Model the fold of this input.
Amino acid sequence: MLLSLDDASVRFGARAALDAVGLQVAEREIVCVLGPSGSGKSTLLRAVAGLQPLSGGRVFLDGRDQAGVPAHRRGVGLMFQDHQLFPQRDVGGNVAFGLRMRGAGRAEQERRVGELLDLVGLPGAARRAVSALSGGEQQRVALARALAPRPRLLMLDEPLGQLDRSLRERLVVELRELFHRLGTTVLAVTHDQGEAFALADRVVVMRDGAIAQSGTPLEVWQHPADAFTARFLGFENVVEATVAGSAAVTPWGKLPVPEGAPQGPGTLLVRPVGVRLVPAGEGLRCTVAARTFRGTHVAVRLRPQDGPLLEAACPLRLAPETGEAVGVEFDPSEVLVLGQGRPPRTP
Amino acid sequence: MDVTRTEVADAPRRARSGNAARLGLLALPVAFFGVFFAYPVAAIVARGLRDGGVWRLGRIADVLGEPGIRHVLWFTTWQALASTALTLLVALPGAYVLARYDFPGRHLVRAVVTVPFVLPTVVVGTAFLALVGRGGLLDGLWGVRLDTTVWAILLAHVFFNYAVVVRTVGGLWAQLDPRQEEAARMLGASPLAAWRKVTLPALGPALAAATLMVFLFTFTSFGVVQILGGPAFSTLEVEIYRQTSEIFDLSTAAVLTLVQFAAVGAILAVHAWTVRRRESALRLVDPALTARRPRGARQWALLGAVLATVALLVVLPLAVLVRRSLDAPGFGYYRALTREDGGTFLVPPIQAVGNSLQYALAATAIAVLVGALAAAALARRDAGRLVRGFDALLMLPLGVSAVTVGFGFLIALDEPPLDLRSSWILVPLAQALVGVPFVVRTMLPVLRAVDGRLREAAAVLGASPWRVWREVDLPLVRRALLVAAGFAFAVSLGEFGATVFIARPDNPTLPVAVARLLGRPGDLNYGQAMALSTILMVVCAVSLLLLERLRTDRSGEF
Done:
């Protein structure tokens, strides 16, 4: 393992920003830590970088304990959330900074700066002032600067956070392709699930300083470990339920569940595509509370007679008008019984 | 359990290492102020108030009971209040215009109004004497003389402190986001109401700081009052000088020093408090974005009025000074400066230029070293109350009687291992005392503004703590450092009160030489004084113009 965290904890007073986190990142793996703000993601990166001392546990890089190793000797790269380019240096000066700190010769610096600026799509920009760059260009320079000294581990803190949506979607694909080509080991943190799923080989969901779930993007998306993860991923149809046989008792009435679902009380997730609209009078009776256009489909919010609001995904041309009465049926293959996870921390 | 134990062991250790670093940085400034400020001042107070090993504190009540002294206290206070009010009245429109109007020559005007602030007080006094005194410009034109009235002092104080208001208030004004006021307008506020409710509160702390600084400078005014006040008007500082060097009543001088010390301490405490409030989060923008061309007759009229005020109040006295220096044909007064006249000086007066430059350079080096270390310690985010207290303490030399400091140097630093009486370093040391507060005030806002994550970015890229300082901090504060050095240089160049006591007769500085020439009768001496003052003014103005080019975006206190 290139990076392992062993019960790593960071406390600020009584609050644990990192709570006994165990995490492994293999060589050439792209791991994305996903969590809401305040979940301890950035603290995790700072602890690995050596910018934040641990209150407990250990960080290993290449199997070597990093206790007492200062930030500048760890040989990892960190791309900051708002880039933190050095304002008094030009683009080339920023990219060459890490090489200079390692005592690289002038010729090597120049060669490598040219190489990296080509790589990030800014050829010939070495003499430009960083203040004259757009947000996307700054992001590319920050990436080039972090990559230049060939860090054994590259860490990205909300790498695309401040960019506009279309740029973000294009860059995330470019980044993934680039990291795979270079064989870079990456540990990124973000609060944006789309970004995490597009970038990562493996997604780690964090909550209150601890890891809630870890798995491939598909695994996490298809089987959120608990209600928190499901809600954080944007699923709204999450309710308490009691499962008996192939049905579950919920506030929405009896729902079918897939075969082999864990029995007894639990939490139920119904994916929006599993909420099928049928003519009024059939199934669960609902009125349409709101509809949101989502590009490929329409997200319809339904108010049932009993129970919390339901979200359904339906094709554009079939979407009912607000205020219309509809019936709802549930597709058992899109219903999921979730684990309990750990109870939310009381503040 | 393991976690808790490490944490408990770790927290105090980190706090200790932070304290150690801070104390390391503060060691030199503390030692400097202890040895070259606190010790001499304490020594001279003790000399005045101790008799046969016993403190005679009863003297304090005796001295304060004298009607003459009470008159001095009263005059010192009310003239300071009046000068401050008058300065604000005259300078606030100037601060606004120079901050918000874009017009050709704006930088030149800003530099010009700053020249008086670093001029030696004796020169200021002389310039006003030439303007409003006997045979002066006003006397010649309309037969008006002000030199026996308090108006001459008040006007000279406005002349002197105009720049303090323009720099402190105007510096912030230029960086206030005009959109805040626009937002208030959109919510239905009239222009006046928007200014009163939005801009004024934002300016408040800077305004308070400027007011206090002007009050402090006028409260401790020496050279101006000495020359323009005549026998009728005397401030505490002038009285201390009189008691020390004319009447040799050290105990009265000691009591007056203590009184001034207490008053200045109180003023500085209030100042430190407002400075801290000023650092509250204001949305600041690039000054270049807020200035625009004046529009409409009213704005042009305001600009015209401000420029006329500057011309009359700042340029005219300086112009009169220069003209008087040229009264003799063929630059006679200037050429006379190069001759040994055998009477006033042991050396040609022109040598004072070289002395002054050497002393000021040495003083600047000391002030920058001490001030930068102090600023670095004060800029740390974890600075505690004790350190902030030191911040206020650093300002004390600005207000404590320079006469006391100078005389204190003579009587305190005369024994081994600190026998410096015959050393040239004595003058730069005294001048550096006045320079340090300027260095600290200029550096501190810039150091505090350096984003800590830039340092982290450098560390992650492999920079050791020392290289982080060299690669990140130094480039960012380099300009501020140069500006601070320039101020310290100009202030050292003009220092008079302490230098007059400790400069050796064969090595006078420019202000000392000017004062000595003024003290002698005859047109030649007077003209030479004017010529030397002009040279001093030009040196100051050139260094200020250079500063104006380097001025950092963040406004310092001055």
